[in-house]
Amino acid sequence: MRIRSLFPGLLLIIWITLPGIAQKAQTKPEVIHYIKLGNTLRAVDKPQQAIELLQRALGLIQGNDPYWEAVAYENMGMAYADQQSNAEAVRSYQKALEIYRKLNFAASVTAMQELIDLVTGKALYAGIDIGSSGVKLAIFRTTFENGFYNKDIRSKPLSPNVSLVSGTDQSFDDAQTVMKAYIDSIRHYNILNKHVYIAFSSGVNETLGKTPEKKAQLYKLLTKLVANDSLKIDTTLTAAREAELYVVGAIPRKMWQTTACIDIGSGNTKGGYFDEKQVFHPITIPYGTKTLTNQIDNQRSLDLESYKQEGQRVMNDITEGIMKTAFANEPGIQQRRTVGVGGGAAWAMVTYLHPEKAGTTAVPITRADIERFKQLAMSNYKLLINPDLTAITDPEVRRKAEADILNAQSQFSEKQIIAGALLLEGISNVYANGNLTKRFVFIRDSDIGWVTGKFLEMANQEYDKTIAKEMQNP
Questions:
Q1: Range of the domain at 394
Q2: Number of neighbours of residue 7 by Cβ within 10 angstroms
Q3: In Å, what is the CA distance from 472 to each residue of 263, 449, 459?
Q4: What is the DSSP string of 140-183?
Q5: Could you give the CA distance from residue 263 to residue 446 in angstroms, rounded to a whole number?
Q6: What local confidence, expressed as pLDDT, does residue 433 receive?
Q7: Do 193 and 315 reside in the same domain of the chain?
Q8: What's the Cα-to-Cα distance from 160 to each of 199, 290, 314, 399, 428, rounded to whole Å?
C-alpha cells in the first residue's frame, strides 16, 4: 500500500504548521529540507503543495548548487506528472537532464530520458508472440522503480485459438489475419520500430522445425505483413532462451534470488532460475499442453476413457524420465522456495477453480488445487468448466471472470485440459521430492512474459552499463 493512502491528514497539518513554510528557503539545509518534504507531499497525493515547496527551494539554490537544483527540477517534474501537466513535467525533466549531463551523471541522464519518454508516450513497446496455440500481442511501457525496470501493460487483446503446430493451411491463414490486426494496433499506437519485437515461440520453432517447409511457409506469409515497416521476425528462439526472458518479464528483479519459474506452454514446458551471479539456469521439457495431447493420442482415435488411461501412463513415463532428469541437472531450482507458475494450463486452472481472483496478478496455488483440477478434469469436466460465480459481488471482477471462462472454454478442448492437469501434477510431484516446502504462485499475463522480458532485459542491461561506467569515472 502506498503511503499516500495512509496519512493525508497528518501531512496537511505538517504543511500548515511547519515553521517558516511560507517563506523562501534561506540556507542549504532548509533547501534540502524543502526538497525532501516536497517529495513526501507527492507521496501522499499533494503534488501542488510539493510544487510550491520546490519552487521556493529553487529560489535560493538556482545557479548556486547544480546537484540540488537538478534534484528539485526532477521532483517537480514528477509532481507535474502526477497532475497530468505533461508539458510542465517535460520542461522540468529537461532542465534536470541538462544539469545532470553537465555534472556527468550518466545514470541520472538515462533516468531523466526515461521519465521524459514516459510522459511523451515514447516508452511504449510491442511484442508479438507467434506461439503454438496462436498469435499474442502485448503493448506495454517500461517503468523505472527501485533501480530497475518493470512493465505496465497497456493492451493485451484476447487471442483467437489458432493451432499453428498443426501445420495446416487454414491455421496459417488464421494466424495471418490475427497478425494483420495486431500490426494495425501497433501502428495506431505509433510505436517505434526499434520498440517492436516479433518472434516464433520456441514451441513453434521446435515443432515446425521438424517440417522446415511448413516453417518457411508460415514465415513467408507473416513476413509479407511487416516488410513495409522494416520489421523482422525472429525464428531462432530456443526453449532455454525463452525461459530466461520469461523470468525477466514475469518476475520482479528483486525476487530473482528466491524464485524459480515454470511455464507450461502449448508446445513445451520451460523454466529456471537466476543464481547469485545473475547467471540463468534453464530447464526445458519438450511437452506442453497441446504437444502432450498429440503424444497421448497422435492418431486422434482414442475415446475419452482410453485417452485418460493412456495419458496417465505417458505422463508417468515423462515424470520419471525427462522431467526428473531436467530437475536433477539443475539442483538449484529446488532451493528456491517460491515457484512462479505460468502458461495456459495454470491459467485455465486458476480461471476455473478461482474465478474470484480474476484480474489478480499473483494468485497462490496449492497442491490441493492441482489435485482438484486433475480430479475434475478426469471425472466431472462439465462442472470444472462451469464454475459458480454467485459469490462474486464485484461487477468488474465478475465480468473479467466470465470473459476468462469463455476464453478458456474456446482455447482448450477436454483432452487438452486433461493433458494440462497431468503436466501440472507431474511438475508438482517432482518439486515435492525437494527438501524445501514450495510456495506456488500463478503469475497472470506470463503468457507474454518472454516478449516483455526482451525489452526489460535490454533496458536493465543498458542501465547497469551506465551505472558501471559512472562508478568507474566518478
A1: 239-443
A2: 14
A3: 39, 33, 20
A4: EEEEEETTEEEEEEEE-PPPP---GGG--HHHHHHHHHHHHHHH
A5: 8
A6: 78
A7: no
A8: 18, 15, 29, 19, 29
Q: What is the pLDDT of residues 51-93, one digit of tens each?
A: 998 998 898 888 888 999 999 999 999 999 888 898 999 999 9
In this structure, is the dihedral angle defined by the CA atoms of residues 231, 282, 311 and 434, taken in order, positive or negative?
A: negative
In this structure, the answer to whether residues 283 and 366 fall within a common structural domain is yes
Say which residues have a Cβ less than 8 Å from residue 423's Cβ, sequence separation at least 6: 264, 269, 287, 288, 289, 292, 315, 345
Q: Which amino acid would we find at residue 370? A: I
pLDDT digits (tens, 9 = 90+) for 2-45: 444 444 444 444 444 444 444 555 678 888 888 889 889 988 88
Last residue of a domain, one of 71, 88, 120: 120
Q: How many folded domains does the chain comprise?
A: 3
Q: How many helices (H) and strands (E) does the chain have?
A: 19, 11
C-beta atoms surrounding 130 within 10 Å: 26
Q: What does the block give as the cell for 21?
A: 513554510
Residue 418 and residue 405: Cα distance in Å, rounded? 16
Residue type, 164: L
DSSP-assigned states of every residue in 234-250? E----HHHHHHHHHHHH
Reported as a pLDDT band with limits 50, 70 and 90, residue 454 is confident
Q: Do residues 308 and 335 both lie within one domain?
A: yes
- Are both 94 and 128 inside the same structural domain? no
Residue 340: inside a domain, yes or no? yes
Residues 255 and 219 in one domain: no
Domain boundary among 98, 120, 142: 120
Query: What pTM was computed for the model?
Result: 0.71
Same domain, 110 and 36: yes
Same domain, 319 and 258: yes
